[in-house]
Design goal:
about 475 residues, about 45% helix, eight-stranded mixed sheet, 19 helices, alpha/beta, disordered N terminus
């Protein structure tokens, strides 16, 4: 009888498995650029926030290591007060956008949801919890198999359920619309094309879908869906059915002749956007870990800067004309575990080579991305000074030269917060050898948080940002 009961139970699980289905993202029938979760609509509503400053935080991937390191940056910005116009203000309140990939997406999304509550709850809810062990336990539990064996659901959907239980409590992007918190942009990678799809309405317009109904937990699960380990997260693609209109910058780069430079990234992004619009041939989009395409979450920022640079109409469309200062803090929690491979004539095994073959290009691309941002900072300042010098040589006064330069007077600060900059070699080596997993000892979480604060405090670039705000560090 017991054997028959087990057999019947297995048959029941198999039958249910065929019915397992994923959440279906809802379509929109009409494109509306004046509603939804869009940075250019939400940022102007922020209170106690300098409207002339665009302050962006970029949180990398790296499991709990990245989540804790990025949280430490938020803590330091919260502790850092400046006195501006005689008023004491916290620097964290100036943050407008937080991009997040994989582990960094949890911190970004949780801060957008909780705001000040994050600093009382995040450690217990997520950072110091064995998330990885709980997910493994649920995956191995036969009672959960019907949720991800067969049908259209997968292991990442099971993970999203768990993230809802411990952190996001069923919240959707629609629940963030009235928050006085930064805009959080988690990103996934289209496994078919390598294109990014970020969780904000501008990208969901491409697939004619309503982001307001999408849960934050599903965005976090998508951004951290490591291929093979976790399943891709599938979204219905309704692209081409809602009257979508391309942003103004597309008109300036879509023409093959007379295209402004530099515009290579913008042109490539336009091609990707066209691809998402093709729902006839691509009715489903399968997304994996955002770090596969961009482990720093900076690709969208670079592309946006390029789009703003080539299109005056686009700058007006998103209200960028009033920006006089851009602060970008890149929080890079990359690891560099020690190996002894080079001490042996025998090369590492297949599995190790496979992991290394993916991690090395990601780290190299991340390095190049950071350097590109720093180059842009220097090139912008150089271009402006060159134009002013030319005007003065032509006989203009200094004031006339300043006023006549077509580039706006814009300060760009790009800060790199990474373990490489820690002065203590022993501590640097220890943190860079922490595993990329969703569980760390509480002591390691605290070390990561402290390292993030130390790196900001010792950064000359960070001190320059404080001076740029016209304030002084509060005592």
């Amino acid at each position: 009888m017991r054997t028959n009961g087990i057999f019947i139970g297995l048959l029941t699980i198999v039958a249910l498995a065929g019915c397992a289905s994923r959440p279906i993202n809802e379509p929109i029938t009409q494109f509306d650029p004046k509603s939804g979760y869009r940075p250019y609509l939400l940022i102007p509503k922020r209170q106690n926030n300098d409207p002339h400053t665009l302050f962006i935080l970029s949180f990398s991937g790296g499991g709990t290591r990245a989540a804790a390191f990025s949280y430490g940056v938020l803590e330091e910005l919260r502790r850092t007060e400046v006195v501006i116009d005689g008023k004491r203000r916290r620097l964290i309140d100036e943050v407008d956008v937080v991009t997040g990939v994989s582990g960094g997406s949890f911190t970004a999304l949780a801060y957008a949801l909780y705001g000040e509550r994050l600093f009382a709850e995040y450690e217990d809810r997520f950072l110091k919890r064995d998330v990885q062990g709980a997910l493994l336990g649920r995956t191995l539990n036969p009672l959960n198999w019907w949720k991800f064996v067969g049908g259209t659901a997968g292991r990442s959907e099971l993970a999203a359920e768990y993230y809802d239980e411990i952190l996001f409590a069923g919240a959707t992007f629609g629940d963030l619309l009235d928050k006085q918190t930064p805009v959080a942009l988690a990103t996934g990678t289209d496994i078919s094309t390598g294109s990014r799809l970020a969780f904000y309405q501008q990208d969901f317009d491409l697939i004619c879908s309503d982001l307001n109904k999408v849960r934050l937990s599903r965005a976090a699960a998508t951004s951290s869906a490591v291929p093979v380990v976790l399943s891709a997260v599938t979204f219905n693609n309704y692209g081409g059915t809602c009257g979508y209109q391309y942003p103004a910058w597309v008109r300036d780069v879509a023409k093959p002749e007379g295209r402004p430079r530099p515009a290579g990234r913008a042109v490539q992004r336009y091609r990707e956007m066209q691809d998402f619009q093709n729902s006839k041939d691509r009715p489903y989009i399968h997304l994996v870990d955002g770090g596969v395409a961009d482990n720093l979450g900076l690709r969208a920022v670079l592309e946006t800067f390029e789009e703003l640079g080539v299109s005056t109409a686009f700058r007006e469309e998103v209200g960028f004309g009033g920006i006089r200062r851009i602060v970008l803090i890149v929080v890079n929690a990359r690891s560099a575990p020690r190996t002894d491979w080079d001490r042996s004539e025998t090369p590492p095994g297949f599995a190790v080579q496979l992991l290394q073959a993916s991690s090395v290009p990601i780290d190299r691309y991340s390095f190049e991305t950071i350097e590109t941002m720093k180059d842009r900072q220097e090139i912008y300042a150089w271009r402006r000074e060159l134009l002013i010098a030319r005007a003065r040589l032509a006989g203009a006064t200094e004031a006339q030269a300043e006023a006549g330069v077509p580039l706006p007077k814009l300060a760009l600060h790009a800060l790199d917060v990474s373990f490489d900059n820690l002065p203590d070699a022993k501590e640097r080596d220890y943190l860079m050898n922490l595993p990329t997993s969703f569980v760390l000892p509480p002591g390691d979480v605290d070390r990561l948080r402290e390292a993030a604060g130390q790196l900001l405090r010792q950064s000359q670039d960070f001190q320059a940002v404080l001076r740029e705000f016209g304030g002084v560090p509060a005592k």
